[in-house]
């Protein structure tokens, strides 16, 4: 694992063009398996999980051409041999979204039972199994693997999810496109990256009704064509650079083609005394001279940030706001309603001198405003936590080290390069 050496205390200033959203790029890559026609994808980031999927596509016989400098990826799956074997990549959870396309093409797919991803706690596979079975697939365990087999008996269905899961919603939509008739999912996830996968599929000829809402209908059985699709800017990365400006007292503008996704994010920044402005396709944070937690009108309650499925604040963004919380004067409660393992890293913040209290696996209180000191901290395998630790280190005069910071590379290919361009003193160390 690589580490980051950070010499903090610099106000970051400048303009940034963010990369595409990993959580949109990976599902779209998986969705390309549903089409026999060539597909061109633009603004594709060179990140770890994209590399793994591209390697896998080549292994099963797809034709892939990737101009990494131009961020253009050309994919043609028509060359996949019908008898190809498919044992999915294990180092990323997105593998599970290749199953609908591979079942349609190959009939049988194998997946390691303990499919990996960020270390956020228990992430069950049962909702996905329920979706595959609902569309006619046989799902069985074979030792340490799960075997998915197509039966040719799939038909349209209606499913009401217990939880608005992003990947389960995406798998339902992909499966629904492989059968005849109209399928409906209730309590669907509606995150921007789910909508973006739907945008791509519609560009290929799919008919999807209700994207961005909790009830989505999918008309299946239509042969999908090719398309030329450009990914949107990643709202996670946009919010992260705005937070970096706030925590260092800097002035950063970030390109943002979808400011309509930022109403609640903007309101959350305001809880720390930081204001975002949007104009002419750019979002700007002129960091305040000090961060201070907004006091509730109901004064006996602690001001809080609640993270849950969209349109709540995304759980993936909670760590960057926790970084603001340890810098801001006052108390703030952070409530992760999604992952029970998403807050355990708070002990690393204490190495900087931060005062935090973990109430239970889902709720954390920061008591900010204390003077912090440089430290060596270790990141868990969670993308935005590595960035949050980097944020705190950047706001402290002196030299800090973020050990095991590699998760950043899973989502942001140019993050450190952009960080340095803004005036930060940071470098990778092996």
From TrEMBL:
SUPFAM superfamilies: EPT/RTPC-like. Residues 6-418 form the Enolpyruvate transferase domain. GO terms for biological process: cell division; cell wall organization; peptidoglycan biosynthetic process; regulation of cell shape. Transmembrane segments: none annotated. GO terms for molecular function: UDP-N-acetylglucosamine 1-carboxyvinyltransferase activity. It is found in: Cytoplasm. Its EC number is 2.5.1.7. It catalyses: phosphoenolpyruvate + UDP-N-acetyl-alpha-D-glucosamine = UDP-N-acetyl-3-O-(1-carboxyvinyl)-alpha-D-glucosamine + phosphate. Keywords: Cell cycle, Cell division, Cell shape, Cell wall biogenesis/degradation, Cytoplasm, Peptidoglycan synthesis, Transferase. Gene3D superfamilies: Enolpyruvate transferase domain (3.65.10.10). Pathway: Cell wall biogenesis; peptidoglycan biosynthesis. GO terms for cellular component: cytoplasm. It comes from the Bacteria. It is an enzyme of class 2 (transferase). Belongs to the EPSP synthase family. MurA subfamily. This is UDP-N-acetylglucosamine 1-carboxyvinyltransferase. It comes from Croceibacterium salegens.
């Amino acid at each position: 694992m690589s580490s980051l050496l950070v010499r903090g205390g610099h106000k970051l200033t400048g303009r940034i063009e963010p990369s595409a959203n990993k959580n949109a790029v990976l599902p779209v890559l998986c969705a390309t398996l549903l089409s026999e026609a060539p597909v061109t994808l633009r603004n594709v980031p060179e990140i770890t999980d994209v590399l793994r999927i591209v390697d896998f596509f080549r292994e099963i016989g797809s034709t892939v051409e990737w101009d990494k400098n131009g961020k253009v990826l050309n994919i043609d799956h028509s060359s996949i041999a019908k008898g190809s074997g498919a044992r999915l990549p294990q180092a990323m959870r997105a593998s599970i979204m290749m199953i609908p396309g591979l079942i349609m093409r190959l009939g049988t797919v194998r997946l390691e039972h303990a499919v990996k991803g960020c270390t956020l706690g228990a992430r069950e596979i049962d909702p996905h199994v329920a979706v595959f079975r609902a569309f006619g697939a046989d799902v069985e365990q074979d030792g340490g693997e799960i075997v998915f087999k197509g039966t040719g008996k799939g038909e349209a269905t209606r499913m009401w999810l217990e939880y608005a899961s992003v990947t389960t919603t995406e798998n339902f939509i992909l499966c629904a496109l492989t059968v005849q008739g109209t399928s409906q999912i209730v309590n669907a996830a509606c995150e921007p990256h789910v909508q973006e996968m739907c945008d791509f599929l519609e560009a290929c000829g799919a008919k999807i009704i209700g994207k961005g809402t909790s009830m989505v209908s999918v008309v299946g059985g239509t042969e999908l064509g090719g398309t030329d699709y450009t990914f949107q800017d990643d709202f996670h990365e946009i919010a992260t650079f705005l937070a970096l400006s706030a925590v260092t007292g800097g002035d950063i503008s970030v390109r943002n083609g979808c400011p309509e996704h930022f109403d609640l994010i903007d309101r959350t920044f305001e809880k720390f005394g930081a204001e975002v402005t949007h104009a002419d396709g750019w979002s700007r944070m002129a960091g305040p001279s000090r961060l201070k937690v907004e006091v509730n009108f109901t004064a006996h309650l602690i001001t809080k940030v609640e993270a849950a499925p969209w349109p709540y604040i995304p759980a993936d963004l909670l760590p960057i706001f926790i970084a603001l919380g340890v810098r801001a004067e006052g108390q703030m409660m952070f409530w992760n309603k999604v992952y029970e393992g998403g807050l355990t890293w708070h002990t690393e913040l204490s190495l900087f001198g931060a005062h935090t209290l973990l109430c239970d696996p889902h709720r954390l209180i920061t008591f900010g405003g204390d003077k912090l000191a440089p430290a060596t901290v270790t990141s868990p395998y969670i993308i935005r936590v590595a960035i949050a630790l980097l944020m705190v280190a950047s706001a402290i005069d002196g030299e800090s080290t973020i050990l095991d910071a590699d998760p950043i590379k899973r989502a942001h290919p140019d993050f450190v390069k952009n960080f340095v361009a803004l005036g930060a003193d940071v470098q990778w160390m092996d």
